[in-house]
């Protein structure tokens, strides 16, 4: 049931965004991918989602080669992409019903799942009957998350799930992700929100300069809680001289 990635590389123009990356995310893990802006986290997830074509490397999900068993693999994959494309002319409820149909949920199943997700996640239930085009960023994000999880995928990929959510919604999402974890599911998340990452991650990956600079458990990453997650990340990524930038002109 794992995600297995071997030798994944991607070049955009002259930039070697991903260089020969190999990674296994095992069932039961909540693997959080961290790294500075533009380091390739979304590109990495989009390769797994088949939205970006890697230059080389192989991706295996549930022991099946992604490209040879696309339909089967995709039926068992749920994803929130960074740009979270929804259908703007649909209402939120219509969009979720549309997604339920794509995944061949029965009408009863769809109704039960959609209404329970709405009750759990949405305070502004009335808006779900208005067109998505008028939604706030956070509201769109919630619809995107609900759509990703509606068919109970074994592999769940979430790109920046917390961005744009208010603290209440973010905390509800933390609880949802933690409860969703089980020994048959793999969860891979890209996020800058270390506060929430610390609450959900079992494993951490840090991308930098095309490579996985760190790949291991959250416990190891924080040295059994000796370091806060942001300290651990700063130590890995922040060169000492970058704190000495001359900004005196701004402060006087
Ligand atoms: N379709 C594309 N064409 C050209 N360059 C691209 C394309 N997609 C991404 N890139 C470049 O690849 C690099 C990695 O981008 P990516 O969005 O994967 O980074 P990221 O780690 O997700 O960033 P952020 O944390 O800011 O969301 C960036 O330099 C970006 O400009």
UniProtKB/TrEMBL annotation:
Q: Does this entry carry the keyword Transit peptide?
A: no
Lineage top rank: taxon: Bacteria
What start-end ranges are recorded for coiled-coil regions in this protein?
Answer: none
Gene3D superfamilies according to UniProt:
P-loop containing nucleotide triphosphate hydrolases
Q: Which GO terms describe its molecular function?
A: ATP binding; ATP hydrolysis activity
Entries under SUPFAM superfamilies matching the protein: P-loop containing nucleoside triphosphate hydrolases
Renumbered to this chain, the signal peptide range is none
Q: Does the keyword Transport apply?
A: yes
- Please list the residue ranges annotated as the ABC transporter domain: 3-234
PROSITE patterns assigned to the protein according to its UniProt record, in alphabetical order: ABC_TRANSPORTER_2
Keywords, A to Z, come to:
ATP-binding, Nucleotide-binding, Transport
Q: What is the protein name for this chain? A: ABC-2 type transport system ATP-binding protein
């Amino acid at each position: 049931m794992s995600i297995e990635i071997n030798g994944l590389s991607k070049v955009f123009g002259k930039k070697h965004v991903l260089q020969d990356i190999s990674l296994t995310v095992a069932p039961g893990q909540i693997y959080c991918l961290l790294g500075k802006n533009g380091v390739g986290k979304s590109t990495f997830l989009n390769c797994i989602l088949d939205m970006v074509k890697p230059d080389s490397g192989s991706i295996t999900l549930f022991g099946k080669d992604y490209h040879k068993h696309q339909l089967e693999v995709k039926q068992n994959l749920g994803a929130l992409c960074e740009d979270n494309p929804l259908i703007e002319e649909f209402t939120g409820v219509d969009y979720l019903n549309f997604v339920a149909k794509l995944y061949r949920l029965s009408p009863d199943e769809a109704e039960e799942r959609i209404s329970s997700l709405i009750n759990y996640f949405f305070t502004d239930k009335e808006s779900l009957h208005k067109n998505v085009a008028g939604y706030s960023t956070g509201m769109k994000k919630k619809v995107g998350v609900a759509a990703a999880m509606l068919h109970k995928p074994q592999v769940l990929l979430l790109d920046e799930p917390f961005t744009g959510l208010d603290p209440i919604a973010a905390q509800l999402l933390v609880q949802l992700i933690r409860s969703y974890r089980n020994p048959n599911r793999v969860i891979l998340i890209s996020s800058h929100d270390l506060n929430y990452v610390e609450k959900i991650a079992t494993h951490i990956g840090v991308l930098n300069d095309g490579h996985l600079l760190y790949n291991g458990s959250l416990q190891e990453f924080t040295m059994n809680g000796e370091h806060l997650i942001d300290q651990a990340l700063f130590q890995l990524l922040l060169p000492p001289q970058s704190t000495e930038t001359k900004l005196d002109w701004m402060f006087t």
